[in-house]
């Protein structure tokens, strides 16, 4: 289990994805976007909207089962992006860089961008928005829901 959690709301994810779109403006034009499923799908949709890019492709790499890391498996290679030249690849985050390394091997000439980055994975992407420490687990809105929390005064024994 991670030591710290960084909880991202839908609003925050939208703002951070738009901030990523701003950073990518100077790198246009892109032939299309490749979203790394599943986590890259929603950021890719927001960025596709902001950059007015209608062509969205996917690559599916499975690396984690919840917080447990396994061997990365390419479940679906990108169909239309060739060697990646002129294409933008989007993921929600880069952590150890395992997923990014696999995608980089498939699309060596693409521009890789993530919304969030941890130090170990940061060198593998060209563009990102927010860095969090390596021992932080990012909780995305699709993995969480609001729940009742007891008042502080209840259950502390004081
Ligand atoms: O840099 P890494 O250590 O490879 O970690 C980053 C990857 O891990 C998560 O995907 P996950 O494998 O959990 O699949 P998902 O996107 O389908 O949830 C996340 O969405 C990134 O793709
Ligand atoms: N949700 C989530 N998935 C990850 N996969 C690798 N690192 C992370 C993380 O910090 N949060
Ligand atoms: Mg992922």
Oligomer: single chain
What percent strand?
Answer: 25-35%
Query: Number of DSSP strands?
Result: 8
Q: What is the total number of structural domains?
A: 1
Return the CATH architecture.
3-Layer(aba) Sandwich
Rounded radius of gyration (Å): 17 Å
Helix content: 10-25%
Q: Report the average pLDDT across residues.
A: 94
Determine the CATH topology: Rossmann fold
Net shape: globular
Could you give the distance between the termini?
29 Å
Quickly count the helices.
3
Question: Stretches where pLDDT falls below 50 for ≥5 residues?
Answer: none
Main β-sheet: number of strands, strand sense, barrel status? 6 strands, mixed
